[in-house]
Write a structure and sequence with these properties.
The protein is of the alpha/beta class. Among the domains are: 110 residues, Conserved hypothetical protein from pyrococcus furiosus pfu- 392566-001, ParB domain (Alpha-Beta Complex), CATH 3.90.1530; 145 residues, no CATH class; 140 residues, no CATH class. Helices cover 47% and strands 9% of the residues. The protein is built from 27 helices and twelve strands. The protein has a five-stranded mixed sheet. A four-stranded mixed sheet has the order 9-11-12-10. A three-stranded antiparallel sheet has the order 6-8-7. Helix 14 packs antiparallel against helix 15 and helix 18 packs across helix 21. It starts with a helix and ends in a 34-residue tail after the last helix.
């Protein structure tokens, strides 16, 4: 060992200072320093200090900080003189941290914050987790975990050093890689806690509330390769070495894989259409209005198959009649081979039972049961059957189909997040209406305890930009979010100094600034994200009324692309979108394509005509013609500054700034 080989030297006590590489940052208890000083005065210094040379010529004490404090106390009280010789061993700078950590761990268990800082320094010197572990006697896994904690925000590590939180809190916070978000989560957890005692589970839930474990069957089926490293939140502190992934992202990847399987079966077996779904089609309830599940036709085996099945049945009886304990492994393997061949023959005959004529009017659906893939063949679309019924009554009103039936829940959540950001940005342009809507919301609470009007305001105020940008396909790069951020930065610069601690500072703000702040906060409170309820029913949008009130047009803020929409739709729905947009030829072409090609095909045609899905706009907005060909980027004033004769374009993205 390098430390064992170092020669003992003596240096004056005045030449010693605490080294910046000493990992001990928590102050020593005064009584322990005094006790050490008394011992040194009585019997002398029994153990050397470990030092390294500093640029100013003095010796930095890397190990032996408490002894140094005791010596300095003795000198300050004139119990030893300035020339008192202290026994030391000198080491190179690169060994100083390791020596400091090793001694401190032996003498007095290091505080976790000190251990984290020490590991960080050693890693910055180029040492790997394995090398650090070998040097200090720790397992590689422990070192990796502590190095993960070095990525926490400085405020978090400071709270750990003050014992305001524990390493368990830090481990939970380490699930979030964004340091700003880490601090926000800790503050939120503190507000939710009782007596300011933060729960570890509360922190973990705040970070992973919209995520699922990577240890589940669904993730294993989809596979880690379906996600980028940034999409998987690795939990180094999990006993199962797992992690988390966004539930919506996992469902999207699962749908894509199921759709690929469905398309393969359609081509291989000759079905008219195919579909990939998160849930199997049910024989009951709402599904019966959309699909009809046919029973598997009677299975008929060929003469050759029947003969082979008889042979296999005889072999099965023979193997099962073998004496137990005699060649058990061989018998088990033979039985397995028999059963596998029986299943193959039955499987082949079952597929053959579906005739080409049956397949022309039916499809195959591939779904997920929760544990495994389920294939449903011979599925008939009720709409197709109704069209073929020649004796159907022509004057009977057609059954209204909810557009949301064709939208997966993950896609619904993603695009309703994008829509919410766009409505927020548009409302910023009309501060008078924003404030009026805020007052209306509060009056509903003050003058009436309940209201039947559906609206999206959360005047608490609850701001969900982090979740919205995480879900929205365009995220923080969207036109709407950029407009919101621009206005936020402008208003933040107008806030009085020390405003967070002194509410009276807002008395100095003029009316125009207060109006702008009220409008901004009101707009940011909007939450129109859609998902599903406990019964699996998809939420209707709460944004329609607000959109109509401010003449909002989503087409001015967002346009569909293969990446943000069409690649997440099923092929029949892509074809349907093109058809409903009046592009019959393009729809027919898309029906013959692979899903990926059809998605790019749809983007090419639909992006030119300002098309948006009907479920992403209010009913009134659907009636308005989409005359513009591209996103409008012209500038305009907001409604507080417009002249009486001017007409303000309230849907213009550039107005939000």
């Amino acid at each position: 060992m390098a430390l064992d080989a170092a020669q003992v030297e003596y240096v004056p006590v005045t030449a010693l200072v605490k080294s910046p590489l000493n990992v001990r940052t928590i102050p020593y208890p005064a009584e322990k320093v005094c006790s050490m000083a008394d011992s040194i005065e009585a019997i002398g210094l029994l153990q050397n200090l470990v030092v390294h040379n500093l640029p100013d010529g003095r010796c930095g004490v890397a190990a032996g900080g408490r002894r140094l404090k005791a010596l300095q106390l003795l000198q300050s009280e004139n119990r030893i003189d300035a020339g008192y010789q202290v026994m030391v061993k000198k080491v190179p700078d690169e060994l100083a941290v390791a020596a400091s950590m090793a001694e401190n761990e032996q003498q007095m268990a290091m505080h976790p914050s000190e251990q984290i800082a020490g590991f960080r320094t050693l890693a910055e010197q180029g040492k790997t987790p394995a090398q650090i572990g070998d040097l200090l006697g720790f397992g590689t896994r422990h070192v990796q975990r502590m190095l993960k904690l070095t990525e926490l925000a400085p405020e978090i590590l400071a709270a750990l050093a003050k014992d305001e939180i524990t390493t368990e809190h830090c481990q939970a916070l380490a699930l979030e890689s964004d340091q700003k978000r880490q601090v926000e989560v800790l503050e939120s957890a503190r507000k939710r806690s009782w007596n300011n005692e933060v729960s570890v589970s509360s922190i973990r839930n705040l970070i992973t509330s919209e995520e699922v474990s990577t240890n589940g069957d669904k993730f294993r089926f989809v596979g880690e390769a379906a996600f980028s490293p940034d999409e998987i939140r690795v939990d180094l502190f999990s006993s199962e070495n797992g992690g988390y992934v966004k539930s919506a992202s996992l469902d999207t990847a699962l749908l894509e894989k199921l759709q690929n399987i469905a398309e393969h079966l359609r081509e291989a077996e000759g079905w008219s259409w195919c579909d990939g779904r998160l849930d199997p089609i049910s024989h009951y309830g709402k599904d019966t209005k959309i699909w009809r599940l046919q029973s598997v036709p009677p299975i008929e085996y060929s003469e050759t198959e029947s003969e082979r099945l008889a042979e296999l049945e005889a072999l099965e009886a023979k193997y099962e009649g073998e004496n137990p304990g005699v060649n058990d492994d061989v018998v088990a393997g033979a039985l397995e081979a028999v059963w596998e061949e029986q299943q193959t023959i039955a499987h082949r005959a079952k597929h053959r039972a579906w005739t080409d004529e049956m397949k022309q009017s039916a499809g195959v659906v591939v779904s997920w049961t929760g544990q495994e893939v389920k294939v449903q063949r011979g599925v008939v679309l009720c709409a197709d059957e109704k069209m073929e019924e020649k004796d159907a009554s022509t004057d009977q009103a057609p059954e209204k189909v909810d557009p949301l039936d064709a939208v997966s829940v993950p896609l619904l959540t993603r695009l309703s997040s994008e829509r919410t950001l766009a409505v927020q940005a548009a409302l910023l342009q009309q501060p008078q209406k924003a404030v009026a809507l805020m007052v209306w919301k509060m009056c509903n609470s003050v003058f009436h305890t309940t209201t039947s009007v559906k609206e999206p305001f959360c005047i608490s105020v609850s701001v969900s930009h982090y979740a919205l940008t995480r879900e929205a396909p365009d995220g923080e790069n969207s036109v709407a979010f950029q407009a919101i951020q621009s206005e936020k930065e402008r208003l933040e610069a107008l806030l009085p100094e020390n405003w967070r601690k002194d509410m009276t500072t807002f008395f100095t703000l003029d009316g125009a600034t207060l109006m702008a702040l009220m409008a901004f906060c009101t707009a940011c409170s909007i939450d129109g994200v859609q998902g599903k309820d406990e019964f699996g029913r998809k939420h209707q949008s709460s944004l329609d009324g607000v959109e109509n009130a401010i003449q909002f047009d989503l087409r001015d803020w967002w346009k569909p692309t293969a990446d943000n929409l069409f690649s997440h739709m099923k092929l029949p729905h892509i074809v349907q979108a093109l058809s409903q947009a009046g592009l019959a030829g393009a729809a027919q072409d898309a029906a013959k394509m692979k899903k990926k090609d059809a998605a790019e095909h749809a983007e090419h045609f639909l992006s030119k005509i300002r098309w948006v899905p009907e479920w992403m706009t209010s009913a009134d907005n659907q009636k308005q013609p989409a005359a513009k060909s591209e996103l409008s980027l012209a500038t305009s004033q907001n409604d507080t500054d417009a002249d009486a004769g001017d007409v303000t374009d309230h849907n213009n993205p550039a107005c939000a700034a």
